[in-house]
Design goal:
Blueprint lengths: L9 H25 L2 H48 L1
C-alpha cells in the first residue's frame, strides 16, 4: 500500500472479467437447462457479482505488486544493453 499511486490497469481487469463472464454464462446456461433455481441463483451471485468484485480488488491492489519485479527486470536488462552498445 506504500507504493506510488498508479493508474488502474483496465486491460488486466477487462481480461479477468471477460473470462469470469464466459464461465458464469456457461454455468448459468447449464442451470437453466437443468431447471435448477439454486444453480441459477448461485451462478448469478458468484459469477456476476462476487468474482468481478474480487477481480477489481485484485487488479486495483495486488496487480501492481506482481508487475513491479517484472518491470524492474526489464529496466535492468534494457540498461545493460544500452551500456554494451
Amino acid at each position: 500500500m506504500n507504493e506510488p499511486h498508479r493508474s488502474f490497469d483496465w486491460l488486466a481487469f477487462l481480461g479477468r472479467v471477460v473470462a469470469i463472464a464466459v464461465f458464469a454464462t456457461l454455468w448459468l446456461a447449464d442451470g437453466v437447462h437443468r431447471h435448477s433455481r439454486t444453480e441459477i441463483i448461485t451462478a448469478i451471485s458468484i459469477g456476476y457479482i462476487i468474482l468481478p468484485v474480487i477481480a477489481y480488488l485484485h487488479t486495483r491492489y495486488y496487480n501492481s505488486r506482481f508487475m513491479v519485479g517484472f518491470v524492474e527486470a526489464v529496466r535492468r536488462r534494457t540498461a545493460a544493453r544500452k551500456r554494451v552498445d
